[in-house]
Amino acid sequence: QVQLQESGPGLLKPSETLSLTCTVSGGSLNNYYWSWIRQPPGKGLEWVGYIYYSGSTNYNPSLKSRVTISIDTSKNQFSLKLSSVTAADTAVYYCARRSTWHDVWGQGTLVIVSS
Amino acid sequence: EIVLTQSPDFQSVTPKEKVTITCRASQSIGSSLHWYQQKPDQSPKLIIKHASQSISGVPSRFSGSGSGTDFTLTINSLEAEDAAAYYCHQSNSLPYTFGQGTKLEIK
Q1: What is the largest CA-CA distance in chain A?
Q2: Once rounded to an integer, what is the mean pLDDT over residues B79-89?
Q3: Strand pairing partners for A93?
Q4: Which of A26, A37, A71, B80 has its CA 20 to 30 A from that of B1?
Q5: pLDDT averaged over chain B?
Q6: Which of A58, A59, A101 sits opposite B46 (nearest CB)?
Q7: Is the pLDDT of residue B85 over 90?
Q8: What order do you get walking across the sheet with A77-82 strand by strand?
């Protein structure tokens, strides 16, 4: 079955750019939307944005000015970049497949922003 | 942005008890409401889609109902393994949003 795995640095300094990659195995990126969702420690879930396999994107307005999601179908990967991070961006970042609902999730990766 | 408000935030329950969690949307979302279970240090797991549709592999004690703005997740005959946080999630309109979560503790 389809599995997702996040990867990327776990520690950043304020003002740096967060870069994460989600590798999809056991299936294709085609015909799905692929989301990033984050969860600050001990808090709830926040949708960051998604990308369609064709490359079209949509972002949460609260993050839109800092977020870029891209896709590489040849590598079966999609990526998240979040610029100018602050401590408020400390969270577990999940990648997920979106049908109408998010049915497959990665295990998540913790990103800590600290000086 | 559609705001989802869950009730209660926390509930301590005994095994075999029936649990009801509600999710209210700030505007009508039809049936585009989904429920997730998240156990500690795990990613969320889809347990109900489209308000009331069951998910393969999820125990039948989990059920959902509602449409429009008011939704309910019901867990019949609670088991110890159901200790988790539960989140509702709407996919009716962007940006997608989640409820603040309901934490279930098993006594």
Answers
A1: 41
A2: 97
A3: A38, A109
A4: A71
A5: 97
A6: A101
A7: yes
A8: A3-7, A18-25, A77-82, A67-72
**What whole-number distance in Å separates Cα of residue A29 and Cα of residue A32?**
6
Q: How far apart are CA A62 and CA A69, in angstroms?
A: 15
Take residue B33 and report the two structure tokens written for it. 């409401």
Residues 6+ apart with CB under 8 A from B74: B18, B19, B20, B21, B62, B63, B64, B65
Inter-chain residue contact B43 with A105, CB threshold 8 Å: yes
Residue of A nearest to B53 (CA): A101
Query: Are B94 and A105 inside 8 Å of each other by CB?
Result: no
In the predicted structure, residue A43 carries a pLDDT above the cut 90:
yes
pLDDT per residue over A24-38, tens digit each?
A: 999 999 999 999 999
pLDDT above 90: residue A99: no
Whether the pLDDT of residue A100 is over 90: the answer is no
Report the candidate in A49, A55, A41 with the shortest Cα–Cα distance to residue A102: A49
Task: Determine the Cα–Cα distance for residues B95 and B91; give it in Å rounded to an integer.
Answer: 8
Pairing of strands A11-12, A109-113: parallel
Q: What is the CA radius of gyration of chain A?
A: 13
Contact B37/B86 with Cβ under 8 angstroms?
yes
Q: How far apart are CA A99 and CA B46, in angstroms?
A: 12
